[in-house]
Amino acid sequence: MKLEGTTDIFPLRELIEMVTYSTVTGALNLYGGSTSGSIYFRDGRMVHVSCGSLTGLDALTEMFIQHGAHFTFVSHSFCEEETVWGDSYFLMNSAEQLAARWHSVRAVVPSLDLVPRLTKPREQLQRRLLPAETMLIQLIDGTANLRAISERLQWSLIDVCEVTAELVQAGVIELDGTGSAGSSSSHGSNTQTHNRPGLFDRVVSVTAAGA
Predict the structure, then answer these.
(1) Domain match, 88 and 7 both
(2) Claim: this prediction has a pTM higher than 0.70
(3) Is 164 left (phi over 0), alpha (psi -120 to 50) or beta?
(4) Which residues have CB under 8 Å from 82's CB, separation 6+?
(5) Whole-number Å distance between alpha carbons of 183 and 204
(6) Residue 127 DSSP class
(7) How many domains does the chain divide into?
(8) Which helix (H) or strand (E) holds 6?
(9) Quick check: helix, strand or coil at residue 150?
(10) CA distance 163 to 130
(11) Residue 184: inside a domain, yes or no?
């Protein structure tokens, strides 16, 4: 069985709920812009998520950021790899919250490939910075991009980008580079939705109508 449509009509959260409550095995594939992603289910349980070079919760977060993506669900599509574990609602809530955080910083920090540079001498800037900001600017050398700084600090990428956005807006640093901008759209809903009977039928109905 193969179903398809767009997340404008069937939001990603509803699609995940549909598969979870139906306890089916298969792959939910999203195609949005230049990035594609897949969520694999085993008896209705999410087991693996990939989106571009991302996997696990990071990949699921990226899929929640995408807006108006085309989707297909292909039943009996198996994947041995496991990158997510636990309750689907917890995973969805976590991904939606992270997506909202990314949405708030991507207008200022559109790419992890950008290289931060100090606007003034380091000693002069440190006098008015918070501890986390001080830790970050210590690693700014004019060559390391944000992804590399995240690895050196052992911080999550979103934490690095949030602190970076604060520093950019305060005029402490500027970003150089030609990294590609990420999508700034986000579903932004953290409200847990319960079983909504008939969604599977709605998808089938829309798919059949477009056949």
Answers:
(1) yes
(2) yes
(3) alpha
(4) 47, 48
(5) 29
(6) G
(7) 2
(8) strand 2-6
(9) helix
(10) 10
(11) no
Strands (E), 9-132: 26-32, 35-42, 45-51, 54-55, 70-75, 115-118
| Alpha-carbon distance values, 125 to 120, 130, 155 (Å) | 7, 11, 22
CA 51 to CA 98: how far, in whole Å? Answer: 15
Domain with 112, as residue range(s), is: 107-176
The tokens for 72 are 């297909």
Q: What is the pLDDT along the chain (211 residues), one digit of tens a residue?
A: 678 999 999 999 999 999 999 999 999 999 987 679 999 999 999 999 999 989 999 999 999 998 889 999 999 999 999 999 999 999 999 999 999 999 999 999 999 999 999 999 988 887 789 999 999 999 999 999 999 999 999 999 999 999 999 999 999 999 997 433 333 333 333 333 333 334 444 444 544 555 4
